[in-house]
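call fold(seq) -> tokens
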Amino acid sequence: MSRKPIYNARSKGIDIAVWEGNTGPQFTIRKSYKDKQTGEWKESKTLFSNDLEILKELITEALSWGKNVENIEEPAHYAAAGATTVNLDDEDLDLPF
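ret:
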């Protein structure tokens, strides 16, 4: 069975997702880019200073969302609290996640 994030936000190839965890929410961060030579989508572990500014904004959004559901005792109820995806710009609409 495939799990889906309870919250997801992305901007300019940087993505943050919040997942239900056994002991509370868990967070994943990834950076994707399209290889200009092959046209394939790839992931990178390298972040540049401008990426950190984007990541800071995404983390702030995720934490703000989390405060709205922090009083929920059981992770299964996150969806009822408004699981959501936020797109902070239109450039990433074709990202493969």
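The chain has a mean pLDDT of 78.
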